[in-house]
């Protein structure tokens, strides 16, 4: 479904990702791991189009996306939850979710019922301002907003960062539910937690110094400890 080949991404004259080659197949949960500062979020921004790659290729469903805008990628089925969530704090939960519908091909006028089934806390708080929610609730809102447009590819940048353990467990359960109920949805996530990644992912990539240095279906702690600082 998604394939990046030798992506080189950076900020101005500073190159951060020097070799970003990954593949996400339909229905897969793929986890991109690595220590802080090795280029994981930069690569994901390049995939989403927030940063324009310096060189390399990116294809989605066999179509080159390298020159398309973030908006065009969203309309093609990319859903993106950036690090830090970036919800609209002055808007209500319901208003945040309605904004998420804007990139849906079918242009629905109402929030899908299954969103509230996945995230029942958001139904309880739908009239609360996003800025009034706890960090864990804001993260759930950010994921729900990305899912509201019914994307084919969901990009999650550190969904468990700074989240209390009970909410981490809920996010894990939500991803497991998505795998069961939406088997064609592909997920690429950046994650630091070894245990969380091992529970939910089907395939793993590890990045170090801007390059992919490990890939595989198994995540053996003893072999990769030095790459993850665990």
UniProtKB/TrEMBL annotation:
Example of a GO MF term: branched-chain amino acid transmembrane transporter activity
UniProt-listed Pfam families: ABC_tran
Organism domain of life: Bacteria
Gene3D superfamilies: P-loop containing nucleotide triphosphate hydrolases
Family matches, as CDD domains: ABC_TM1139_LivF_branched (cd03224)
Keyword ATP-binding: yes
UniProt key word Transport: yes
Name this polypeptide is given: Urea ABC transporter ATP-binding subunit UrtE
Source organism per UniProt: Salicibibacter cibi
Annotated gene: urtE
